[in-house]
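so im writing up the methods section and need the N-(5'-phosphoribosyl)anthranilate isomerase record in one place, dumping it here so i stop losing it
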Amino acid sequence: MRVRVKVCGTTSVHDAVLAAEAGADALGFIFAPGSKRRVTPEVARGAGLNVGPVVARVGVFLGQGLDEVLRTAEAARVSTVQLHGPLSALYLSEVARYHPVLRVLRPADLAEPDALEALAQPGVTPMLDAPEPGGGVPLDWAALREVFPPGAWLAGGLGPQNVAQAIRALRPAGVDAVSRLEARPGVKDAAQVQAFVQAAQGATDPSYPQ
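--- predicted struct ---
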């Protein structure tokens, strides 16, 4: 099964096209308050228009009200909504009525019945991330082998040098990276993006260098 690849923290048309041409399946646009990579809906919409419909556009939110999330997602024309932070099952179900949802969890959440129960809703896919998203620190993949949710995405400190190892350890449906793909916060490094996509796509190919 081919692993899908998401390049998050996209802030410009240039970087959106760069990631799409490298073979990324999805782009992440951060709307969370306080993020160094936060963009306006207009920027995200413009970038999305330049990569075409094949590449998914993911809006990333943290702690924002339901109305704000839905208005922003509509204005930005994102195809998927990624949600961080404490959220109720009702909130998730309301967002999932309009958009597929990537629900971000921390490793500690995997021991919480309520968090796992919310994932059973239609249109909601889990993504496991580090306790401090965007911090560049990888998770302990070996410790997660027995509890990693089937069909989940993986984030947290991933880059060209370690993404293949992470994929082989946990077999996620998709992988997501930000900080290790940048020349500086909000600006992508073309070589790192290309290398990340190639390493992720080759991780399950027996002919790809291990």
